[in-house]
Structure formats: structure tokens, C-alpha cells
Structure prediction request, 467 residues.
Amino acid sequence: MATIFQFARDSLTNLVSRMGTERDKASSSYYGVPVLDDAHILNAYRGAWLPRKIVDIPAFDSVRAWRDWQAEGVEIEPIEAEETRLNVRGKVLEARIKARLFGGSAIHIGTGDANLAEPLDVERITKGGLKYLTVLSRRQLSIGEIERDPASEWYGKPRIYRVSAGDKAQVDIHPSRLVIFTGNAQPDFELVGGGELTWGDSVLLAVMDAIKQADGTAANIASLIFEAKVDIIRIPNFMASLANEGYKAKILERYTLANTSKGINGTLMLDKEEEYESKSANFSTLPDILDRFLQIVSGAADIPTTRLLGQSPAGMNATGESDLRNYYDRLSAMQALEMTPAMYRLDECLIRSALGSRPKNIYYEWAPLWGMSDKEKADVFKTKADAARAIAGGSGQQPLIPIDALSDALVNAFVEDGSLPGLEAAIDEYGKLAEQEPSVEEQAAALALEQEREQEAAATAQSRLRR
Prediction:
């Protein structure tokens, strides 16, 4: 019964207040089709600092720390040298910026093949087989027929891409020869553009309204600065005398002289019957208003204000660390979910081009985006060292794992996190713990310890016999 009464009361309330009915003012609000052409996007990127930072910052941060190859030392150096020769890091940054700006871009994997319309056979790449990398934006690549076979790797994507080659006809490029990046992915390409496939949306599309509001607020505040101080002078019979043209000229001459006098010696000369008043605008709340609009932009762009605006965190005990950690965690996820799959074929070609083969034990990890301070690094090193001592045992205790295995694991850990620079080279020069012969002092100490244990065991046995 209570449920029925509650429903009736809600219905009557809605009818009286018009809330939820067609006469509700909010019922007329709707989201229209967002429109942002390439010319507008380019002008915003080139002429305004907020759009440029929103596009560039995540793209730059995603490649800032780059990646660490995990392999034998003799294999890492050729791979890194090949990355440097081809400027892989710079090409990925350029492609990421263009993808975020225009909605899509691609890196063409140049292997010197004559027929680019054929799929790329990674296994055929030999040493030095990767010739060049070329960044192409969505504006330079047109799409062909869409793949409709659900069993195909390219389902829902173009079977072929086309690029203009100067005076020549368009060149067809198979998608396996492209590292494809997109901006903001579209939920369903069938519903966007009348079923025509597009790359993706520019990241500026969803935040442009917030950017315009923030820029407009800043421009209005800047205009108010000119009205910060207004001088008011009351003149007897001013309006009645304006009909006389000579009076107008005299008024302008009169107060031009008065302002000149005020600017020179700080003295304003007025007639006895004239009244002077100065009004100043109150700007105390304007910074807070502008900050709110900039915070909205920061939230819309998913970039912390400390990173977007370069300002220190505000508020009691505010460090901004949690915001930055969340931001870097999102970038790390983007690296794993978007960049790594997109760059798979490029990386396979890179390894083969650098080494001439593909060892199975080679892989890479994205370097951490959050860098620790020297104190934090020292604390981590001390924690690892203390844990190693506990595992190794002490005061006659048995180690939890063999000392040699523990030593190798610690060497790997300290080399990977950079705690002890040059450790790997030193190990190669002096050898591992298991390869080193014990010194005379160590042998003597071990012998003395063994004798002491034997004596303790003999004394214990004699004591038991006496009992």
C-alpha cells in the first residue's frame, strides 16, 4: 500500500512541478552531432596553447621514458642502435601527435619491397632489411574496401590503404605494412558518417567547448583589466551644454589638460563646482572563476592540472602525487593496450633488421613513467638488501635458497632497476659469486667454524653418555 501511495505522490509532484514532462525545460536539451573540421582543428592547434598542450602532453609522456629491451647484452646494443638509426622513438611521437590531432595516423614500415599491396612477410626480413619509417596522417591516407569477413584479422578495417605518390598514380599499401594509431576511437563506425569508416575522432572534439569557455573567460578578464580604474567627474549642466559644438571641443581640451597635469605631478585641477570620484573594479573572485574553467578543461582532457598548467597543487597537504600517479597509470595501460599491439610487426622487423634473426628470449618492457627520488631509490635498495640478508640466513641459520641463486637474482634486480650502475660490467670482469675461489682467510674461517661445530657435537654426545 505504501508503494502505491509513493507512486501516486511522485506522479502528482511531477505533474505540479512539470518535472519530467514535455513542459519541463530540461526536456528540450539534447546532444547534437559534433562538427569540427580539419581547418578548425589545425587553427586551434597552431594558435592556442590549451589545444596544443592537450594534444602533445599525453603523446610526449607515452614515449618520454621509452622502453627497456630484455635480452643478452650483445643483443640489446644492436637493437637500440637500429632504433636510433630509424628514429623509431621520434616517428612514434610524431604519429601519436597526428593521431590525437586529426583522429588517425600511420607509420609505413619501409622494407624496399616493390609491391606494397601484398602482405608484409616478417620472416623474410634480414639484417638491415628495415630501410625507413614514414609517418602518414589520416589526411594523406585514403581507405579502400572494408573487410567484412569476421575471421579476418582486419575485420571492420580497410583491406587496403591508398596514398598519393606525387605525379604517379595512387599507391596501394596493405595494412600489415602500417603501424596504425587512432585518436579517440569511435564506438561503432557503422553509425558514424553514414556507415563510412573513419579513423577516429580528434581528441579536441570532445573538449573544444570547454576550451572555448576557458579561453573566453580569460579574454573577458583581460578586457576587464582596462576597466580596473574609472574616473568619474560630475559637471554642472553637462547634458544641456552638449548641443553646443564649441562646448564639446572645450570639454575635450579641458580634461585632456587635466589628465596631463595629473599624470605629471599627480594633481588634478577641477572647478569648484565639479565633483571627482574614482571607482576601482573588484577582481578578487575572478582567479577562482578562471581556475574552475581550467579545471573543467583538465577533467575533459583527462590530464591533471599540475601537468597541464604546470602549477603546484593547492590546498592543505596537497601534493598532486595521486593525480599524477593515476595519469601515469592510464598512460601505462594505453601503452600496453594500444601502442604495443599496434607496433608488433614493426618490433618484429626491428629485431630481425638489427640481429639478422629472431631469438625467442627477446622482449621489452615500457620504462616506468613515475620516477622515484634519490631517497626513495635508497630506501628501496636498503629494503632489498635487508630482505636478501634475511633469505641468506645468519648466525648459523640455514639459507632459504642457495646463496649462488640468490646472488644471481640480486644482480639481475640491481641491473634492471639501475641501483648499482656498472654492476653488469663488473660481474663480467670479476665473475659471479659461484665462480670465485674463496680466499685463504675465508677458508680458515670456514675450517674453524667446522671444527667448533664438531667440538660442540662431541661435547653434547659425552654429556648424554654421562647421564
About this structure: Confidence is low (pLDDT under 50) at residues 1-13. The chain has three domains: 37-206+298-369, 229-280, 374-436. The longest strand covers residues 104-110. Strands lie at 67-70, 104-110, 132-137, 141-143, 161-163, 171-173, 178-182, 229-234, 275-280, 363-366.
